[in-house]
Amino acid sequence: MDYKDYYKSLGVPRTATQAEIKKAFRKLAREHHPDIKPGDKAAERRFKDVNEANAVLSDPDKRKQYDALGADWESYARAGAGGAAGSPFGAGGFGGQGGNVRYEFRSSGDAGGFSDFFRTFFGGGAAAGAAGAAGATETVTRRGSGRGQAQPGGSFADILSQMGYETAGSADQGAARAGGGSGRRHPESVEATAEISLEEAFHGTSRVVEIEGKRLEVTIPRGVDTGSRIRVSGRGGDGRDLYVVTKLRPHSVFTRKGADLERELMVTLREALLGAEVPVATLRGKVLLKVPTGTQTGRVIRLKGQGMPRLNGEGSGDLYVKVRIVMPGALSPEATTAATTFLDLIDQPDPRAGS
Which residue would you say has higher pLDDT here, 345 or 69? Predict the structure, then answer.
């Protein structure tokens, strides 16, 4: 598999700060998002590459690991043929440290949507497939100066073990490996589902979940959506992490699209024809919406910043109000006469012409 230059994918230097990485990612993600370029396979691949690069470089632990191994990836890939002499874990690897040295490789989330390079680096190896479970942690201990020869095609842990490193605590390990590696299974995480209203997602809330007979109150931050995962470290019993997955109930007024909200607003014929300021309810409270003169049914008016708070804490989305004109009911004889006079004065082209 090819080495992937994540810095190049985001167009940032290796010295880029976390803020520069975040800014570059957001710009590229917006530019290549499938919703912006539907059906564009090249944009879709670019969007996946950008997300993969951000998943590594925005995480200090992953970035440190990538920086340490990235430049030596070809040597690592050739380890099966050339032995430890060409390996980044050899005498010169990591500053040439000898003796018992411990390194940790962590992965979080499902790596299945990423490249083989990513999965091998952070998800337990491309050959391991789904075995690279969320939250997996591998602790690697160098065993003195003994170095074996790595065989290609195995998981990251297998290759490390063959090269003279002891692995323990991996989520994909069972019994002790041949060659002296003592494996103990990493505790799996525990999941609980929290169903919340749109208002609770807007303002933030809390839920009490019961884990092994114990009740635990979990804070749910503002901006969560269906599928958001809230991690509570070590509170799932037996040292396991607890993940609370949120599910939003449908709302009678608002429809959510990411951080944006949509709703309908009924206006009178007078308000649509002559224009008006109409009160409209938002999740923040009521605001006045300016309906322009001559507004048609179906017109969408944007209220900036009146959408959902973003989960990362940076501002809010927008509220899009779709106008629906409500016609008056049965007219009195006097109103019919006045309406006829008024409509005779209007030079309105036939809206069905040509159809």
Answer: 345
End-to-end CA distance of the chain: 57
Residue 334 has which token pair? Answer: 């006097």
Structure-token match 């670019």, residue found: 46
Residues 179-189 pLDDT 10s: 344 444 445 78
- Number of domains, the chain: 4
Q: Does the pTM of the predicted model rise above 0.70?
A: no
Is 348 part of any domain? no
Residue 278 or 355, more confident: 278
The parent domain of residue 24 ranges over 1-58
Output DSSP code: residue 37: S
Q: Can you tell me the distance from the alpha carbon of 187 to that of 136, in angstroms, rounded to the nearest whole number?
A: 9
Indicate the residue among 186, 214, 234 that finishes a domain: 186
Residue 54 sits in a domain of what CATH number? 1.10.287.110
Determine the Cα–Cα distance for residues 204 and 219; give it in Å rounded to an integer.
8
Residue 352 in domain: no
Q: Within a domain: residue 300? A: yes
The H-assigned helical ranges of the chain are 6-10, 18-32, 41-57, 60-70, 73-77, 79-82, 116-122, 156-162, 198-203, 269-274, 333-345
**Helices and strands: H and E segment counts in the chain:** 11, 14
Confirm whether 243 is domain-assigned: yes
More confident residue, 319 or 97: 319
CA distances 75 to 68, 78, 80, 87, Å, are 13, 5, 10, 5
CB 133 within 8 A of CB 165: no
pLDDT tens for each residue of 274-319: 999 999 999 999 999 999 999 999 999 999 999 999 987 789 999 9
Burial label for 163, CB within 10 Å (0-12, 13-18, 19+), is buried
Q: Is 287 helix (H, G, I), strand (E, B) or coil?
A: strand
**DSSP at 7:** H
The chain-wide mean pLDDT, for the chain, equals: 75
76 and 173: one domain?
Answer: yes
